[in-house]
Known about the structure:
heterodimer; A: 16% strand; PFOR_II (chain A); EC 1.2.7.11 (chain A); Transketo_C/PFOR_II (chain A)
Amino acid sequence: MAAVELKEKQEAKARQSRRIAAKGNHAAALAARDVDVDVAAIYPITPQVQIAEKIAELVANGELDAEVIHVESEHSAMSAVIAAAATGARVFTATSSQGLELMHEMLYIASGLRQPVVMALATRALSAPINIWNDYSDAMSMRDTGWIIIFSENVQEVYDNLIQAYYIAEHPDVLLPTVVTLDGYILSHTVEPLELIPRDEVLSYAVKRPRGYRPVLDPDKPMTFGPVGAPNWYYEIKIQQIMAMREAPRVIEEAAREFEKRFGRRYGFIEEYMMDDAEVAIVSLGATASLVKAAVNRLREEGVKAGMVKIRVYRPFPAEQIAKALENVAAVGVLDRAVAFGGPLEGPLFLDIASTLAVRGMVKPMASFIHGLGGRDIFVKEVVEMFKKLQELARSGRSETRTLFYGVKSRTKLN
Amino acid sequence: MSFERFLGKKYPETWEDLPLAGVVPWPGNTEEVDTSAWRTFKPVINQDKCIRCRLCWVYCPDGAILEVDEEYTNSKGRKFKITFKVDYVHCKGCGICAYECPVKAIDMVPEER
C-alpha cells in the first residue's frame, strides 16, 4: 500500500509541477507548440492577438520549429494553411469575429477539400456596431461550413480540446477542418491554472501520420486538387462530406476516450450537471455554461430541481445524447448568445435543440432565451429568473412561441 | 474511408468510388476531356493552300492542331514532309487558327450533327 501511495504522491507532484498560470490565448498557442505544428499563418485580430504573438515568440526562441507565414489578411491566413495542409503539413491558425467572416469563403474550401486545418476561434460579436466583446455570433456563422466545432468552457479545455482537434481532424475517417472556440476575453484574456502535458506524450497521442495516408501535393506524384465539380459530380462530393460528418462522432469519442486513458481528463459530447433528477434544464455553450452551473447551485439550495446541459461538440450535433439528457425534464430552456435574425425563434442553438426533440416526438415546454450579446454581462440572478420562467412553463405545459430577451434595456415588456 | 481504396479505379460510378474531395490522382487526365460539344463552327484545313508555316499550331490554345508525319504534294508540285490536322475531340471551335492563318487555308464550317 505504501508503495502505491508513494507513487500516487509522486504523480501528483509531477502533475503539480506541470501546472502553470495561463491565459486562454496562451493555452491555445501552447497546444499548437505541443502538437508540433509545421505551419502557422495567423493574422492578429482582437481578442485573439496574443495567440499570433505567442506563436511568433515560441518560434523565435526555438521552442517550436514551425514556418510562420506573415499574411496580410485572414483570407490569406486561411488560404495559406489550406495550401500548407494540402502538402501534408500540420497546420494551425486562429481568428475572431470579422476575421472569421473574411475567411468565410475559404472555410468552405477547407472542408470541401477535406484539409485537416485546426483553428482556434476567440468568439466575439459581429459588426455593426463594432464590438470586440464576447458572444457566439461568429461561431454560429460557421456552423454550416462543414467544420467540426468544439466549444471550450475554461482555459484547460481550450488546451485539451485543441490537442484532441488534431487527433480528430487528421483521422483518416474524418479529414475535416476543426475549430476550437475560446470565449473572447472571458477565456482569451483570463488567467487560469493550466496543466500542460509533456510534448512527447502529446505527440504519441496526436500522432503525426506519415505522408501518403491522405492525398497530398507531391511533385513526384502529381494530383489535381479542387477540380471543377460540375452537376454530374458536385453532389457526390458533398455526400462524402456529409458521411465524414456522420463518421466524426465515433472518432471524437475515440479521441476523448484515449485522452482520458492517457491524461485523466474526461470529455464528452455534452456535459450534464445535476441532470439526474432535474425538472427544468437550461442548455448552453462555452464559458456561459459555468454561469448556468452557478445558477443551478443556487436553485438547488432553494430546493428547485434545476439542471444544466453544456454542449461541447456543437458540430456534428450530438442529437442522441441531448435527447437522452433532456428525456425526463418537464421544461427546457436554451440560453443563446447569438441571434438567428428572422428565424422561427431567434436563438440558433434553440432551433437545433427544438428540432432534435421534435423529430423524436418529445414534445415539452421550451423557451428560447437570448442574453449576453456583445459582451453584455449575464448575472446568476438572471439565469435564476430564466429557470423560474421554465418552472412556470412546466406548470402551464405550454412553450414560449417567441424568443425571450433578457438583460436588455427596454421600456416594453420583452419577457 | 481510406485513400487506398480509390487508387487504381479510374472511372467512379457512385460517391463511394470517388476519390476524396474529388481529387484527381492520375495526371494528364484532361486529355480525356471531350470539348467537341462546345463547337458551333469547326475549322477545316485546305491542305492545298496550306504552306506549313505552323502558325495555327502555335496559336491554338488547346493544342488541338496536330502535326502529322504525312507527306503531301500540292497542286503546284511543292512537296511537304508534314501535314497539319485538327484534333476534333479537343477543338472547341474558337476560330483562332483561321484568324491567324496567313494564307486563309482554314475555313470555319458550321458544325452539323
